[in-house]
Amino acid sequence: MLSRTLRSALPLTELGMGAAQLGNLYRETTDAEARAAVDAAWDAGIRYFDTAPHYGLGLSERRLGPALADRPRDEYVLSTKAGRLLVPSGYPEGTMDDGGFAVPATVRREWDLSRDGIRRSVHGSLERLGLDRIDIAYLHDPDDHGQEAHAEAIPALIELREEGVVRAVGAGMNQSAMPAEFVRRHDVDVIMLAGRYTLLEQGALDELLPLAEERGVGIVAAAVYNSGLLSQPRPPANALYDYAPAPAELIAKANAIADVCEEFGITLPEAAIAYPLRHPAVVSVVVGMRTAEQVRGTAERYEREIPAEFWAALDDRGLVRRG
Prior knowledge:
- This protein has 10 helices and 14 strands.
- The chain is an alpha/beta fold.
- It has a single domain, classed as NADP-dependent oxidoreductase domain (TIM Barrel), CATH 3.20.20.
- An 8-stranded parallel β-barrel has the order 3-4-5-8-9-10-11-14, surrounded by 5 helices. A two-stranded antiparallel sheet has the order 1-2. The chain has a two-stranded antiparallel ribbon with strand order 6-7.
- Strand 10, helix 6 (about 210-215) and strand 11 form a beta-alpha-beta unit.
- Helix 5 packs parallel to helix 6.
- The two termini are about 25 Å apart.
């Protein structure tokens, strides 16, 4: 599998494994399924793995670390996130998490973007992962905490990078405006952009992607299926977009793109994975995968060769902005 390199010399495979499902996203995933998915990813050539404390209240990290423990440490890149600490919940026994993960709420998430909070978050992740360093640390969804993010959180991550605890730093968000500010104002290495540079949405072309390319900041494109709207050859009528029912006009646009896909003998999800990688600032596409079967299917989609004429047809019909 091809890799692209960050300015910090970290090589990210063009396809990365998102490990939210290893934290029981929406429903339970067994330990065996989680381990088999990581093994299948390795067999497929994937060497970039992304997790977060948020995913299953630490469960994703506790599963991913051991699943990679017998792999050569210098042969893979692992990213996690900071900004929310996991603290004892005090909830009654049997209370389940209300953050979208099927796990007991024995701990809860607590925002803390202070220097101390960021350092505690990263060291907590190291303990759960069983590692002595993290390759990439992202500030996780600081949408409502912009002042603290600029004043303390991003500088704290940069300090950890200077100490060698992490190798690259940035932010992971579902918007492009605040990440553009991080790129403009701070010495960040990489931005994980979820859902904002896809076949259906290219607003990041206005500012973030040109700025990232100019300053040598890598972009990791996540949520390229837009919550599932682009995950099938034809979007279902009840498809989701940004975790909510998809508007009719977006379903219609996805179907119009699917029409072009069928003309060229490819599928909508194959095109969805390939599209972000056409931009020179994009270093990887991260896709959430729960099972070995999903991993193998995703790898096959990534490997599908997309003819240049297909992209030209989308552009000619005004369906996708030229990158």
